[in-house]
Amino acid sequence: MTTDVKFYQVGSFAVGNRLLSRDLRTVQSEETRANALTCGHRACRGCGEALGARYALDTAIEATKGKLVVVNATGCLEVFTTPYPESAWQVPWLHSLFGNAAAVATGVASALRAQGREDIRVVAQGGDGGTVDIGFACLSGMFERNDDVLYICYDNEGYMNTGVQRSAATPPAARTATTPAVGPEPGNRFGQGKDVPAIAMAHRIPYVATATVADLHDLEAKVRRAMELRGARYLHVLVPCPLGWATESDETIKIARLATQTGLFPVFAAENGDVVDVTPIRHHVPVDPYLEAQGRYAHLFAPSRRADVIARIQAEADRNIVRYDLLGRRGGT
Amino acid sequence: MDKPFAITLDVGSSLVNKTGSWRTERPVYLDLMPPCNDACPAGENIQQWLYQAEDGGYEQAWRQIMLDNPLPAVMGRICYHPCQTACNRGQLDEAVGIHSVERFLGDEAIKRGWTVTVDIPASGQHVLVVGSGPCGLAAAYHLRRLGHEVTVVDAQEQLGGMMRYGIPRYRLPREVLDAEIARIVGMGVHVRTDTRVDDLATTMSEGGFDAAFLAVGAQVGRHTEIPAGDSARIIDALTLLQQASGDGEGPQLGQRVVVYGGGNTAMDAARTARRLGATEAIVVYRRTRDRMPAQPEEVDEALAEGVRMRWLSTIAAAEGQRLTIERMELDGNGFPQPTGEFEELDADTVVLALGQEVALDLLDGLPDVDVSHGVVAVDDNRMTGHAGVFAGGDMTVGDRTATTAIGHGKSAARRIDAWLRGSGSPGGARPALAAYERLNGWYYSDAPATVQHELTTARRVSTFDEVTAGLDEETALFEARRCLSCGNCFGCDNCYGVCPDNAVLKLGPTEYAVDLVHCKGCGLCAEECPCGAIEMVPETT
User: Fold this and answer.
1) A65, A30, A57, B476: which is closest to A21 by C-alpha?
2) What is the pLDDT of residue B450?
3) Which of B529, B535, B533 lies closest to B444 in space, CA to CA?
4) What would the pLDDT profile of A80-114 be if each residue is shown by its tens digit?
5) For chain A, how many structural domains are there in total?
6) Terminus-to-terminus CA distance in chain A, angstroms?
7) DSSP codes, B204-265
């Protein structure tokens, strides 16, 4: 999502700017932002999920003028924010089990409707484990019933707080505690995984979108759009994990940016099952710098370069580029 | 026991967790040296005035320039802008058109009548400035702002030195020069024109001057031995430029003019010859284009106006209208060597543009002033061997450009002030350079430089109208906003936005602080700062 601003110092890529009018700045640039997730939480240094959650919820709070209830699945995001009796949340927040966030959110939305308080909106959120694996049945049910919930998945591609185990969102060849870098095909197996945005689109729910912590303007626009709609909505946010991906804590945003600029993580939005918006790649790069920056792929570069494996990952990126027209070759929007 | 079922503890906030104790490095905001400022011979704080101009604060921006350079409208035209050569944006798309924004601000100041006042009490001391070129005027201006009485003496009829008598009108319209000089004189600078200082010691004692600053420039055209018959018409480039500098008719040069030399003065002379009616202007230079001392854009503009170049050539002899040209070739060290091959070239006039030397006769009464290699020797404080006599500009060592001269004038004024007041030498440590590698290029969108409109070639060869037009406000603003603000915060809110711990505080527009109680030291703010103005510094304990 690019904004048509005649402003060239930082265009529309930075968080804000003194020269931009208020409506062109992000929610995050405001001194008055809600800080739904405040300081003192126990996420690792440079945590992409903590950042993504604040980005998304601050926008949702602004879009709903503070009338928001958040339901959280078990996972890093729950563990590092709410060790009993503390909470880092500055928003009405509810946690039940690992697998039932979508079902609980459905219940909250139903209860609010029964009370005639449909002005209060519901967001459910979880990591990829609680979404792609453990909570998948509840999530699909929520989509199928078209319950009035925005479900946000913060995808860090594994079970990180329990010690970096593989999830169905872990990418091929990545090293985790359960997919060690040994044998002729080291790391996670090559396969389809579970492409939850595509699965959500197959339910033809009103809104499905992907975003990353590397493009704040885009992420905020998608949360705002989601809150304009009613019914089941799904937002899939890529949030790099310095611990599980073995990256430096200051590289979180850079890694997310590389994921989009290689084509490995396509950024798009779909309404009622059809893609309506694609964020084109701005500076196209091969997958190598993305992989090389992460310790979980170190075995692809040492002791010898696994050109065969890298080529398969590159093929995945190239497939996304064609499928979503990420280089804008087909013209149009 | 008033707690709900199964609840035994009060609800707490995560704010009590002092996660700052995890930190091994802390983010520190820096003000680094942008490459433009680093390269500016006048020491302008370019990044700062572009920043001020970016939100339309033109007067504030102009006042920032005026802290260093009293002639923005002039320099925005004639400076060779080393700032743009150094500009980091050049590595991204194209350098910021700093020069054209400076000119816009200078012109705006003239249009709006902005002036500068002397805001400190009079020191009671009187400084003599000899020479009213860019160096002398800059020194006079800064000395005046520092509270001193200043008298400028110049041998010519009008102030301005080479800016008036050397630089052609098509590069610097005289009304612009007059306006900026009038503003300096209007600050209470005493002026004596048509006065040549022959004996500095006497002039100083008779006038009761406490110090003197010499900036007479290099005004004597260098000559070369050309065996020439009586009938050959040979003139000096400086004489030509001076005769053509006023509103009256210039000298008659004839149809075909040969200019000998390869510097900026040679280009000015050739272009002036075209404007004076020469159908052919040919520059004869002994080396190749890439070894010419002239600025590339000067050469480009001359070629565009139909000036022809003869590289690797020297004039061996002149007889009547016939020149003998010897072809040269470069040896292994790049020096031209004669080949013994000759050809002939007709010329109505030969203009010598072989460099300039300093006239040193005014120092005759001051034997303790050292002169070496034809220029006056000065120490780190720009003082000559004679206490209280300072010098700068072309008569001392340095690049012979107007901007360097302005820089000399400024630093000399500050040092003369320190000397007069008996205080220490001014100037602090230079911050580290904001190199391109420090920037995060992702955040800057692509935008090419605004090209200053040039008069059509056909029109400019026949007139002395200004060749390069200025920018209008919209384009000047656009150009200013292309600045990357290297190494200096411009308030993009990235650090405030990207902190996963909400530990960067935004105190107001462009003002931030780090909550060190909660900052874990992840370094995302520093990594994602577009302009490299945050550094991670190791914690000491």
Assistant:
1) A30
2) 67
3) B529
4) 999 989 999 999 999 999 999 999 999 999 999 99
5) 1
6) 10
7) HHHHT-SEEEE-----EE------B-TT--EEEHHHHHHHTSSSS------SEEEEE--SHH
User: Is residue B510 scored above 90 in pLDDT?
Assistant: no
pLDDT(B365) > 90? no
pLDDT higher than 50, residue A5: no
B35-114+441-480 is a CATH 3.40.50.2300 domain: no
Average pLDDT over residues A181-186: 93
Q: Do B445 and A13 touch (CB under 8 A)?
A: yes
- 10 Å Cβ neighbour count for B249? 9
Confirm or reject contact between B485 and chain A (CB < 8 A). Answer: yes
Query: Is A117 inside a domain boundary?
Result: yes
Q: Which fold has domain B221-356?
A: FAD/NAD(P)-binding domain (3.50.50)
d(CA B152, CA B131): 7
Residue A217: predicted pLDDT: 94
Task: Note the pLDDT tens digit of each residue in B376-414.
Answer: 999 999 999 999 999 999 999 998 999 999 999 999 999
Name the fold adopted by B126-219+358-421: FAD/NAD(P)-binding domain (3.50.50)
Nearest in space to A221 (alpha carbons), one of A50, A25, A88, A86: A25
- Compare CB distances from B524 to A11, A28, A253 and report the shortest one's residue: A253
Residue B536, chain A, CB below 8 Å: the answer is: yes
Identify the domain containing residue A133 by its residue range: 22-324
Closest-CA residue of chain A to B15: A40
- Amino acid at site B108: E
Section A246-252 average pLDDT: 98
Q: Establish whether domains B126-219+358-421 and B221-356 are of one fold.
A: yes
Task: Give the CA radius of gyration of chain A.
Answer: 19
**Domain map of chain B by residue range?**
14-31+489-538, 35-114+441-480, 126-219+358-421, 221-356
Give B344's DSSP letter. Answer: E
Model confidence at A2, pLDDT cuts 50, 70, 90, reads very low
Which structure tokens are listed for A224? 């705002």
With respect to residue A2, please indicate whether it lies within any of the assigned structural domains. no
Alpha-carbon dihedral angle through residues B340, B346, B347, B352, given to the nearest 10 degrees: -10
Q: How confident is the model at residue B486 (pLDDT cuts 50, 70, 90)?
A: very high
Question: For chain B, first and last CA: distance in Å?
Answer: 44
Q: Which residues contact B173 (CB under 8 A, 6 or more apart)?
A: B466
Phi, psi at residue B500, to the nearest 5°? Answer: -70, -15
CB of B42 closer than 8 Å to CB of B102: no
Residue B491 is nearest to which of A18, A84, A254, comparing CB atoms? A18
User: What is the model's pLDDT at position A333?
Assistant: 43
pLDDT of residue B227: 77
Alpha-helix residue ranges (DSSP H) falling in B422-514: 457-460, 473-480, 494-498
CB pair distance less than 8 Å for B527 and A25: no
Between residues B429 and B519, which one has the greater pLDDT?
Answer: B519
Task: Supply the CATH number for residue A83's domain.
Answer: 3.40.50.970
ipTM of this complex: 0.94
Q: For B483, which of A9, A31, A43 is closest by C-beta distance?
A: A9
A211-215, A240-244, B163-167, B318-322: least confident range: B318-322
CB contact under 8 A, A8 and B536: no
Least confident of A25-34, A288-297, B147-156, B242-251: B242-251
The one-letter code for the residue type at B407 is G
Q: To 10 degrees, what angle do helices A252-262 and A48-63 make? A: 80
Section B460-472 average pLDDT? 78
Buried b (16+ CB within 10 A) or exposed e, B440-477: bebbbbebebbebeeeeeeebbeebebbbebbeeebbb
Pick the CATH number of B14-31+489-538 from 3.30.70.20, 3.30.2110.10, 3.10.450.50, 3.60.15.10: 3.30.70.20
